[in-house]
Amino acid sequence: MRKLLIYLKDYKKESVIGPLFKLLEATFELIVPVIMAHIIDVGIRNRDIPYIWKMGAVLVLFGVLGLSCSLLAQYFAAKAAVGFGTELRHDLFRHIENLSYAEVDRAGSATLVVRMTSDVNQVQSGVNLVLRLFLRSPFIVVGALVMAFTINWKAALVFVVTVPLLALVIYAIMILTIPLYKKVQKELDGVMLATRENLSGVRVIRAFCTQQSERGNFEEKSNILMKMQMLTGRISALLNPVTYVIVNAGIIAVVWLGGIQVNVGGMTQGEVIALVNYMTQTLLALVALANLIITFTKALASAGRINEVFAMQPGITDGAAAIDAGGRADTAAGMSDAPKIEMKDVTFCYQGSKEPALEKITFSVKQGETIGIIGGTGSGKSTLVNLIPRFYDATEGSVYVNGVDVKSYKVETLRGKIGIVPQKAVLFHGTVRDNMRMGNETAGDGEILAALKTAQALEIIEQKPNGLDTVLSEGGKNLSGGQRQRLTIARALVRRPEVLILDDSASALDFTTDSRLRRAIAQEKGEMTVFIVSQRASSLLHADRIIVLDDGEMAGYGTHAELLETCEVYREICYSQLSGEEVQANA
């Protein structure tokens, strides 16, 4: 938890003023029993009405002062806690955004969402209660003990026994509940994962009529979470009754001993009432402390989970050589004829995988070339293109852009050179214009419309009454699959990248639209280097060169005609999809 306290650095004043006002309130509260004792022993015994009114006014004054201090303390503590939570949430989100694909894959998006929301809220609540009660409750307990000794040391011995006993009970329950709260949050991750998968895959679930089994799976996870929460709640619920029993036993002992002392003249009736009040204050303070400890225990468990995310260091970091956005092969490496993209003996393994996804991949691509990548399912096509913008780092070998190792670039600079259209078309809630400007914030409507035209998406906008101001729903759910793919291609084109990667991004397009798209890109690309990943051989026939992958290995690299003669894997793909005349006509 102390690692997260740095997020209070901008709220030092509030973090000090809040507890101080709570101490002032506690001081006023500790004086009240003494005033009550004087009212009983002086005012009531002597029937001195003016004295009773005067001391009553003092009680009211202390009450108003205590309330004012309490409100101020609540305000400053809440301000510090909310600021703490906001800073923590922003930094955690920033940290998650910097994690590479490997770390996000390992952690899981569902648990990251829980830690960003539920865990941060839990820690924020813990900070709020700590600032309000951490000093006040112990101060009340110790203060009540000291005041009890000033009244009668024999009766105060009851406090000496009661307070440590209460502390022992609180400590035991805290030790039992801390690991349980961690398990509760872990089970919450499971429920969040099941919820997320069901909501995102609702169409598939309904198509296969598996609602009943999914409902049963969700109920099972939810019931496990409920049982863990019930167990934790039962243990935590013991706190209040046990403390009440101990404190009430203490009150009985104070009244009994106080009665004996009154009979022998060792105490007054007002002092007995004051001791009972101090015992009650101790009870209330400890109950508040118990609630604080329960909340703080949850906060500790959540803080540990948040620190686990912060402990995950990004696997992809900026290179040591600061190459600026204009850095090219001739300026950065001194090689004017360097290939645009080059891979040398690249091998890549996903974390936890025994077999490499790619093995010994070597090729080079000149500026302005169009490269096709084809292969069977799971052959490593997407993995290969993901190494170029450093979504993953090669396990062995090197990847070069403009003759410079990608690990030498600043990540932002490298990815600024590349426009990538992933397999799954992802659009964000907002207008079409906002989505198109993601890669180029300064793009004008003319540039956007030109990119839409190249991507065969202009008709989509022209059919909408609001044009570029058309609002897309989350994930672009108000568009068809083909429309989403064309818009994501246009978004990549708007940024005018040096390298364009189309990762099977035309799978939802018909053959005619796909053909028009490829022709338009070929006409508009200029010096842009294009990688086209596709399952369709027809989409790659006119590529300058084609990379053929087979089970992570490069089975062939060359033109369509060359591969027909030298690569059996490529021949099988072509003849399985196209007629013999089509294959030979493009050879």
Keywords:
587 residues; 21 helices; elongated; ABC transporter transmembrane region fold; 4-stranded antiparallel β-sheet; Rossmann fold; 6-stranded mixed β-sheet
Tally of DSSP helical segments: 21
Strand content: 5-15%
The CATH class designation of the domain at 2-311 is Mainly Alpha
CATH architectural name of the domain at 2-311:
Up-down Bundle
Please give the share of residues in helix. 55-70%
Low-confidence stretches: 325-336
Kindly name the structural category.
alpha/beta
Largest sheet: 6 strands, mixed
Shape: elongated
Strand order of the largest sheet: 6-9-10-3-11-12
CATH H-level superfamily title of the domain at 2-311: ABC transporter type 1, transmembrane domain
Tell me the number of strands.
Answer: 12
pLDDT averaged over residues: 84
What name is given to the CATH topology of the domain at 2-311?
ABC transporter transmembrane region fold
Report the radius of gyration as a whole number of Å: 35 Å
What is the rounded distance between the termini?
66 Å
